[in-house]
Design goal:
409 residues, globular, 8 strands, single chain, 10% strand
Length: 409
């Protein structure tokens, strides 16, 4: 979504980060916020979350079913409480999980509230996801999002809603009611444009109803590393097919050999490049929206931009830099939500610099090359959306199983 400034963010003069700052705090000089993609009870109660905010520069927290599953199943933080509870007709595993999760979300939101207020409602948010089983049911997603919003009762909560066809209208409706939304599982430019339209339309409705648009916030969470993992796998299969064909055709012509080498070289040049190129072009769409008259009308009322949030930024391929997706996607009015291990790596050797608005022509060429390589990117992104929902559903199953196992029967 657009910024409230008439000058495009990337053209504004940047100051060099102060050498005494942590790499994460240095990102603030580039107007990028870092949120922690993790939550755990001991982290909240021990003061670690507060330390991450005050010393390291973390400015928000995100969660999902997989994160809560890991926190409950792989730690002892919740064991004592769960052992005193029991499952019954009015309190199943889902109800017990929500009890634990909402308590953690409330506590994290309270710790983040001073930042929420000092940043004028831009940062200081904590996210809680609706059930992944409702991803294709807009009516139930809307009902659950409202319920979670009113149960948590914190102005710096963001309810996470997936960018499925059923979820897009829900996003608009929630924004029109003044409910903050973290739109999750975004992979394609086309889906982002639908989400951006839903945000603007929702804000317009909220403003027309007399709502204070300054206090409504949203992020569009674009998943990064999963795209490279999917595309790299397809490229690897194509390269293997070329090798096998060359072995089978021992008496191939020299021209054929040269052509195979050229095709292989083009495929290899795309490895580890598509996710970043895609994100850069999505950001260009964001910048175009900055100039729209619809947004400018809302901006004059103090409306906040729906920032692009880079999710899934932990590097999955060990051959790539462990800070690849943090260093390559630094730009104004964006958020990078990062898992603890990637945060530690960036704190150790991250090199902040504006990168999101560089090499745009190269990004366009990379995306164009996918078609030449017979890789259907829309097929990839649609598949990733469905897989993402399945992954969260599986994690939710495992989460409820962990709760059941730790409850005193």
């Amino acid at each position: 979504m657009p910024t409230t400034q008439s000058t495009p963010p990337e053209t504004q003069k940047k100051e060099s980060p102060k050498k005494s700052q942590t790499p994460v705090k240095a990102l603030h000089e580039y107007r990028q916020s870092v949120w922690l993609d993790y939550i755990q009870r001991c982290m909240i109660r021990s003061g670690e979350l507060l330390r991450l905010i005050e010393e390291d520069g973390i400015r928000g927290v995100t969660s999902n079913p997989a994160i809560f599953q890991k926190a409950i199943a792989s730690t002892t933080d919740y064991d004592k409480l769960l052992s005193t509870l029991s499952l019954g007709a009015d309190q199943d595993a889902l109800a017990l999980y929500e009890q634990l999760a909402i308590e953690d979300i409330k506590a994290a939101a309270d710790i983040l509230k001073p930042l929420y207020e000092s940043s004028h409602y831009k940062d200081g948010y904590v996210s809680l996801e609706v059930s992944p089983y409702l991803a294709d049911d807009g009516e139930q997603t809307l009902e659950e999002a409202r319920r979670l919003w009113y149960e948590v009762k914190r102005p710096n909560l963001m309810v996470k809603v997936p960018a499925t066809p059923a979820g897009i209208p829900v996003i608009e409706q929630l924004i029109s009611e003044g409910i903050n939304v973290n739109v999750t599982l975004l992979f394609s430019q086309s889906a982002y444009l639908e989400v951006a339209e839903a945000y603007v339309s929702g804000l317009e409705s909220f403003a027309n109803a007399g709502g204070d648009v300054k206090k409504v916030a949203s992020v569009a969470s674009f998943f990064i590393s999963r795209i490279d993992t999917a595309v790299d796998t397809m490229i690897a299969k194509k390269l293997q097919a070329i090798r096998e064909k060359a072995i089978e055709e021992k008496a191939i012509k020299e021209d054929d050999t040269k052509e195979n080498h050229e095709v292989s070289a083009r495929l290899k040049s795309l490895q580890g490049k598509v996710a970043i190129a895609n994100a850069k072009l999505v950001y260009q769409e964001y910048l175009k929206l900055c100039e729209s008259s619809r947004w400018q009308a809302l901006a004059k009322q103090g409306a906040q931009p729906q920032r692009l949030l880079w999710a899934s930024t932990g590097t999955k391929n060990p051959q790539y830099s462990d800070v690849l997706y943090m260093e390559a996607l630094i730009g104004p009015n964006t958020v990078n939500t990062t898992p603890p291990h990637t945060l530690s790596a960036f704190m150790d050797h991250g090199q902040p610099s504006v990168s999101l608005t560089t090499d745009i022509d190269s990004a366009k060429a990379i995306m164009a090359s996918l078609s030449a390589a017979e890789i259907d990117f829309s097929f990839v992104t649609n598949k990733l959306l469905r897989q993402g929902i399945q992954i969260f559903q599986q994690a939710f199953d495992q989460l409820l199983e962990a709760v059941e196992q730790k409850v005193k029967h």
